[in-house]
Design goal:
The chain has helices at residues 31-42, 59-62, 89-94, 96-109, 112-118, 123-133, 165-174, 180-206, 215-221, 251-256, 319-327, 345-348; strands spanning 2-6, 14-18, 21-25, 47-49, 51-53, 74-76, 79-82, 210-214, 232-233, 237-239, 266-268, 276-279, 286-287, 293-294, 305-308, 330-335, 355-357, 370-374, 386-389. With 395 residues, the chain is α/β, with parallel strands linked by helices. Strands 10-8-7-5-3-2-1-18-19 form a nine-stranded mixed β-sheet. Strands 9-11-12-15-16-17 form a six-stranded mixed β-sheet, with no helix packed on it. A two-stranded parallel ribbon has the order 4-6. Strand 2 and strand 3 form a beta hairpin.
Amino acid sequence: MKRITALPIKGESYLLEYLGKKILVDGGYASSTLVPALKKQLGLSKIHLDVVICTHSDNDHAGGLSDLLDQNAISASEFWLPGSWSNVIKDLVEETELFYKGLVEEVKEADEEHLGSLSSEETQAIDWELAALSSNVIVAEHLEPPREGRRLQLRPKAQVGKTTAAVKAKRSITMLGRSPGIARRAAELIDTSERIRKIALSANAKGVPVRWFDYFAYSKDRTAAGGEDFLRPVNAKELLVPPTQPLLQFHRFIALSRANRESLVFLSSGDDAHVDVLFCGDSPLGDGHHYSNSFLAGQRTGKPLIATAPHHGSDSNAMAYGHIGAFGSVAFWIRAGGKPEHPESAYRGIPAGLRTCTHCRHKKHPLQSVCITDKCEAFSDPLAWLTVRSHDCSC
């Protein structure tokens, strides 16, 4: 059996059950809603997850993972995390005060042009700036994917005083007199840092191995590698030690800045299932001008495809639908999370019978899980192997 469930929580979180494995892809905003949803879906009071994946650090994807392992009901075998995090985790956990002081100093000293681009409201402007700044990243050639994780072995320092280093850093940034856009983005990056730090602390405390999936290594030759037979990366290489960013004058700001093209994408395929499942995260499924260079170029699946809506059905990722359509025939689309205006026209233009959402602000539907099951058996009716439980999607 292969089953994908979009969990009925705020934010985006998917549960894949396949080959006896339970794989969680992102965790929505909060573990306080994620854990009850997992218990209800699986009918279990204690849950072991074989893999926990964080596609990127946005709060609606990573927030629920920050203290997931602190819940007594949850255990995990591995975390699969963005390789770019490895550049900051050690300092974030072991030298938290110094890390945030360094970030504040970067915001104070760095030039307006670069920080302004990284603080833009336009996601592609951020992507272009990061692409330029990371062009000198050097990746070792011909490294075999490790296919196993390592424990982080971090030595966190105890907090001194009642005020956290993150709160102090936010206060300091407000006093710098930088433009409102830069000050706002810096505060957002501190929140991002805290999510990354808490996920690392949790995995470290529980001794859960971490596997790194690096977009920059992929971007050098556009060849994905690593993962497992049941789930593999589309736009990343699995590396034991991801490449380090060059020490630019604001390398912390760069390492923490989000770029949608770097949001990890994973594909679940296999000969013992009728469908492939594509987890898109917030990725546009491509890079370059208007994201026109598909991450799926030269690839094709002959199986029906279940795909998650790129970036919650936002039109900013409208080009992704063409990339996915060239890769395979989508039997069903699933959408979760997003802003009040989501889904937008690109997603709503898909025939209603081929798409669904965990909730619908347009039709005022409440949160409800979307569960699609491939029974992985032979049927005379070619549609009988697929069952869908969800809202009827007609907006």
